[in-house]
């Protein structure tokens, strides 16, 4: 978890049940900026763009720069429309009705049916199709309709240009986190819930490595209310409500148990 419970109390966000656990069946993927970790790109939106919520990305000397998957999924289109429209483009199906488009590419690095994760190079920035200069035309869609883009859950800028810095695939497959109980030791359970046997404790401030995450008993702790449980060893689970991971909800790149 990321936000501390105490700060929420101070700002009064508890009013109205704002922290009630929300578990939408088909939550949006956590989309990342579609470029490698650490790179900064200018993303432009404009109301006469087609479709309207697409983003055009540029940076200096960007022709040939790698374009990467903004979330895990399956490549379901690798298409060359020639000198019109998207030109060479890739589409990824992320499940739950969500898809992303990467257009005007110079070339392809994936094929249809391929499973991709965060940071997978899909192709390279180009100026193919109906493009007048090198850039990446990027879209997020839900059930086929373009939606306003979000990176790490944060809405992109509409309308105008904004610099986006990528944290795409910056970390490996495990989550490094810190237990934060404000003092007392945290009980470790044999499974993802308070009904499982206690198998020990971890002290406040302990650094832990999260192998995987799953849902279990809803717990209210230092970082609010969460039903996520973190597996920190074989048969060892702790409530994510007491763990600083840098993320609200599940950690990108860390698998479900
Ligand atoms: Zn465009």
UniProtKB/TrEMBL annotation:
Segments forming domain SH3b: 174-247
InterPro entries: Cell_wall_metabolism_enzyme (IPR050570), Dup_hybrid_motif (IPR011055), M23ase_b-sheet_dom (IPR016047), SH3-like_bac-type (IPR003646)
UniProt GO molecular function: metalloendopeptidase activity
Signal peptide: 1-27
Alphabetic keyword roster: Signal
Pfam families, per the entry: Peptidase_M23
Highest taxon of source: Bacteria
Record's keyword annotation contains Glycosyltransferase: no
Protein name in the entry: Extracellular metalloendopeptidase
Native source species: Micromonospora lupini str. Lupac 08
């Amino acid at each position: 978890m990321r936000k501390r419970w105490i700060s929420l109390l101070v700002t009064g966000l508890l009013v109205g049940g704002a922290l009630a656990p929300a578990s939408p069946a088909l939550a949006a993927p956590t989309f990342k900026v579609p470029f490698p970790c650490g790179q900064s790109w200018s993303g432009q939106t404009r109301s006469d763009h087609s479709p309207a919520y697409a983003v055009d990305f540029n940076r200096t000397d960007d022709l040939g720069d790698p374009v990467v998957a903004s979330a895990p999924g399956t490549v379901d289109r690798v298409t060359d429309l020639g000198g019109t429209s998207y030109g060479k483009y890739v589409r990824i199906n992320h499940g739950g009705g969500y898809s992303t488009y990467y257009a005007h590419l110079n070339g392809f690095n994936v094929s249809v049916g391929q499973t991709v994760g965060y940071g997978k190079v899909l192709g390279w920035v180009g100026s193919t199709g109906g493009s007048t200069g090198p850039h990446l035309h990027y879209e997020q869609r839900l059930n086929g309709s373009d939606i306003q883009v979000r990176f790490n859950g944060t809405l992109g800028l509409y309308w105008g240009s904004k610099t986006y810095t990528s944290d795409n695939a910056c970390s490996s497959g495990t989550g490094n986190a810190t237990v934060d109980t404000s003092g007392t030791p945290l009980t470790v359970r044999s499974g993802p819930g308070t009904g499982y046997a206690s198998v020990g404790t971890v002290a406040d401030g302990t650094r832990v490595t999260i192998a995987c995450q799953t849902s279990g008993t809803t717990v209210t702790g230092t970082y609010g209310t969460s039903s996520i449980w973190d597996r920190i060893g074989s048969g060892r689970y702790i409530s994510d409500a007491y763990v600083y991971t840098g993320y609200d909800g599940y950690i990108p790149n860390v698998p479900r148990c």
